[in-house]
Each structure stands twice: as structure tokens, then as C-alpha cells.
Amino acid sequence: MSVARLAGIDIGTLTCRLLIADLLPGGRLKELHSERRILELGEGVDRSKRLSAMAMDRVIQCLKEWQKAIDGYRVDGRAVVATSAVRDAGNRSEFVARVARETGLTVEVISGDEEARRTIRGIRSGLPAGVTGVLALDIGGGSTEFILDRPGQEPVVRSINIGVVRLSERILHHDPPTTEEIQLAREWVGKETEQAVADMPSRAGLTFVGTAGTITSLAAMALKLPSYQPARIHNYTLQLGIVNELEQQLLGRTKSGRVGFPGLERGREEVIVAGAIILRTVMETLAMDACLVSDLGLREGVLLELATQLEKH
Q1: Which residues contact 284 (CB under 8 A, 6 or more apart)?
Q2: CA distance linking residue 166 with residue 185, whole number of Å
Q3: Rounded CA gap, 103 and 29, in Å?
Q4: Burial (CB count <10 Å: 0-12, 13-18, 19+), residue 82
Q5: Core-most of 16, 169, 222, 308, by most CB within 10 Å?
Q6: Residue 139 pairs with which residues in a beta bridge?
Q7: In what order do the strands lie in the sheet containing 28-38?
Q8: Do domains 4-112 and 127-294 have the same CATH topology?
Q9: How far apart are CA 104 and CA 74, in angstroms?
Q10: Cis before residue 155, ω within 30 degrees of 0?
Q11: Does domain 127-294 have CATH number 3.30.420.150?
Q12: Domain residue spans in the chain?
């Protein structure tokens, strides 16, 4: 099998991500170029059910720049996916049409289940040796996915309509949030989590793995990293006790007081509180005392899926 050069873009509710990589024999990805930008495409979507013109403009401007970067690498294939915010928006067809017209890129709006299926492909490509059965958690801006994946079996996926942007906009109105808001948030996340996993097969013996920006940010904060270092974050074990400590530190500061917090990416100061509440509540609800952090996820899964499609043609 020759090396294929691929580009993938994940248009999320909060963050957009680009990955250009070579697919090596054996299905491993060798990263050539990657970027991520917090563009808040889903701002206000929970309330209005529409993507705002300003948010669409921000994303399209970014996609124009990334399209030039992709062209410079002379890729064999490219794929662009959009998730929760675009799924939920009444004007999603307008957004998809604008992207096609202004950038030449074709956006695939994927379901929560399809998002989870590609995410687990990405996670699986980078798990440490000896990890077999996995319960993965993907905390996004608009939704959170639970993915139970055992070798030789179809993944079991459950999605809840709670993400860091949605939780912030719906409940966490004060800065910092009030005790009542925190309590309401915990109750909502706990209840939805219990319902989501109620009919899942036994979780005994599974490794709990977390992916996406909230969890990688909390790992970077736990490690007090001055800048984002994927090699140190990937396969780091985040203990529940540390998550609790970080949550308390974040809740004790205003949004402006969180700026410069070691390991916290600029632009995530507001939503990281919702992220910490979601992760802590999910871990307590599922009785998980540790979370293995994966720096790989949907973006890598998009490329692996693209490779499969290209092989078929």
C-alpha cells in the first residue's frame, strides 16, 4: 500500500480543527500540519436554533485560509465534517451552501452516532498496548457522546444534548457560577448520564478514555504546561481527585481571572468551567476514578474514514 496524503477538517460547536497527515502502511497517521481555532460557531444556537451570520463568517474565513494550506500539501483526498451546532441549526443548508460557494469545500453534516463511530476510530489508532475494551467520553460544545467499544463488537453509542457551550448558555449565567447554578448543572448532567448508559452492556473491565478539548485542556492544566504539548497530554491519566481540584480552582475565579491559568488554552476561559463540571459529574455518576486522555479523536477518525472511502474507489 502506498502512502496516501489526506486532509480533514472538523467544524465543531466551539472549535474548528485541521489535520493534514500521511496514512502509512498499517493504518498509522503521520501528522504533517495541524491547527485548531476556537471560533464559537455554535454561539446562541441552543436558544435561536440558528447559526449567526458573524459566526458563519468567522468559520468561513478560517476555512479559506485552511484551504490554501491544504492545496500547498497536494493531498490525495480531503474531508470536512460538521457536528452538533450545524446539526441543530435551522439554517444549516445555508451554511453548507456558503462554504461550498466561498471555499470550494464540501461539508458533511454527521449524526451524533456517526461522530462517535469516527471518534472511536481516531481514539483506537493511538491507545497504549494492552488496552482492549473502552468506554470513551467525548465532551463537545453542543453534545457529549458515550462510546462503548469492545474488540470484535459494534460500538454502542449514546449521545446526550449537553456540551460545554450549551451548558454555559442554558444554566451558568453568572461569573463565576452561583452555587444554585452549579447544583442545577450537576443534576442535569447526572440525570442525562444515568439515562444514557442505563441500557449499555456491562462496563466491567473497560478502560475509561476521554477525548476532545475539555479533557485535553484539563490534562494540560493538571500538568501545568506553559503551552499545548500533545506528546505529554496523550495517554496521560487524569485522576478524579485532580479533576475535583481543578474544578474548584476554576469555580473560584472569574472568567478574566482564569486567563493565563497554566495549561488553559486562550478562548476557553468561559466554557472550561462547564467542561470540568461535566467531566467530574460523569466520572462520579459512572464510578470512574481515572480517565485516560486521548489527544486523538474525531479529526483522526475523519482521515481514517476518508482513507477507507478512497480505497473502495
Answers
A1: 190, 240
A2: 11
A3: 26
A4: buried
A5: 16
A6: 144
A7: 28-38, 15-24, 4-11, 77-82, 107-109
A8: yes
A9: 15
A10: no
A11: yes
A12: 4-112, 127-294
Q: How far is CA 112 from CA 138, 140, 240, in A?
A: 11, 11, 27
Looking at CATH, the fold of the domain delimited by 4-112 is given as Nucleotidyltransferase; domain 5 (3.30.420)
**How is residue 106 written as a grid cell?**
464540501
Q: With the C-alpha atoms ordered 284, 289, 295, 300, is the resulting torsion angle positive or negative?
A: negative
CA distance 33 to 121: 20
Interval 250-303: pLDDT, tens: 999 999 999 989 999 888 999 999 999 999 999 999 999 999 999 999 999 999
17 sits in which H/E element? strand 15-24
C-alpha cell, 301:
477518525
- Grid coordinates in use for 21? 497527515
pLDDT tens figures, 81-119: 999 899 999 999 999 999 999 999 999 999 988 999 999
Confidence (pTM): 0.92
- What is the chain's length? 313
